[in-house]
Amino acid sequence: MAISLTTAAADRVRNFLQSRGQGLGLRLGVRKMGCSGFAYVINYADDTQPDDLVFEDRGVKVFVDPDSLPLIDGTEVDFVKQGLNEAFRFRNPNVKGECGCGESFNV
Length: 107
Hints:
This protein is an alpha/beta fold. The protein contains two helices and nine strands.
């Protein structure tokens, strides 16, 4: 079981945590929503929860709740810039389909 980060994603997290002056890493999870069933939830982690699973890649900690892990296990998190837009992107080997707008997925 693992979550990994590209160099671009790890750099983005490190730079953002440094600029805000606090934080332990990245918190990644999923919630039920959207037309395909699940959507990614991504935030910066300021604390740990007792049941958190913690992965570390490229010097950045990624915190995942145990309910989300089966849906995102093996996911690689990337950070991409396209013109004026920038966002985290997910390469999740568990995804069977995505909605047309790209906001939700199913497994």
